[in-house]
Write a structure and sequence with these properties.
Layout (H helix, E strand, L loop, with lengths): L3 E5 L4 H15 L6 E5 L16 E3 L15 H20 L3 E4 L1 H9 L3 E3 L4 E10 L1 H4 L10 E8 L2 E4 L5 E6 L2 E8 L3 E4 L7 H10 L11 H9 L7 H11 L2
Helix pairs in contact: 1-5, 5-6
Length: 243
């Protein structure tokens, strides 16, 4: 089987390693079947997409909607390289699944409106599938309503032209969309389980995802959630596109 490419942009080693391990475990990939590149640490090398089964993009502290003058040199480089990669991915309709940051990158690349109207604090939210979502192969086997972990400052307030809305939550209308046949983005985190969320709460407690003085309340609420469905999306992605 050709490997899948996983791109991440988290500078905290413990969080980055947990995220990569979660993507591999929940997707059912064996060692060597997920090729990981930390795009914030090293520039993206020249890629031949024909060597891969698909591309996975993890979440990020970067926000596509930030004013350009406020973006760091690393963020500007990462965004430029991702936009160049998406040029080919979209042109070929090459299998792509972006989690959280995927909405900001794929959505912006394809002309959607990415802004701060529908940010959600770190928490578990109720996700509801649309009729298109119920019938989408990446959501096969999932309940029509399920809990998922979120934590984002920006979101998609207007879908890109031609996008299908697959899932929503009460506080964020666009939780998942598809473009063409094989290009997906989720606002929630399909890879995120309780252990990983606790690491992120610790790492990002002063980054504005929730009031820092409420960290214990955020942890308590997370422990009381019942998140079990989202990881099936990663497994479905691999089952559909492995080649």
């Amino acid at each position: 089987m050709k490997p899948f490419l996983f791109l991440s942009s988290r500078s905290e080693d413990v969080v980055a390693h947990n995220e990569a391990a979660a993507f591999a475990r929940l997707s059912g990939l064996e060692p060597g079947e997920l090729r990981w590149h930390r795009i914030d640490q090293e520039p993206l090398p020249a890629l031949n997409l024909d060597e891969f089964s698909g591309v996975l993009l993890g979440g990020s502290p970067f926000n596509s909607s930030d004013p350009e003058q406020q973006k760091s040199a690393v963020q500007l480089r990462v965004e430029k390289e991702l936009m160049q990669l998406l040029d080919e991915v979209v042109d070929r309709d090459f299998p792509f699944l972006g989690a959280c940051y995927g909405v900001g990158t794929l959505g912006k690349h394809q002309g959607g409106v990415i802004d701060r109207q529908f940010g959600e604090p770190i928490s578990a939210v109720q996700i509801s599938l649309s009729d298109d979502g119920v019938n989408d192969p990446l959501l096969a086997g999932l309940a029509t309503r399920f809990e998922a972990f979120v934590g984002h400052k920006e979101a998609c307030s207007t879908l890109p032209p031609g996008a299908l809305l697959l899932a929503s939550s009460p506080s964020c209308p666009v939780q998942m969309f598809r473009l063409r046949e094989n290009l997906y983005a989720t606002q929630f985190h399909p890879e995120l389980e309780l252990e990983g969320l606790m690491l992120r709460i610790e790492a990002y407690q002063h980054h504005g995802y929730f009031p820092a003085d409420q960290v214990e309340a955020v942890r308590t609420a997370a422990r009381e959630s019942k998140v079990s469905e989202p990881g099936k999306i990663l497994r479905n992605f691999v089952l559909r596109y492995a080649r």
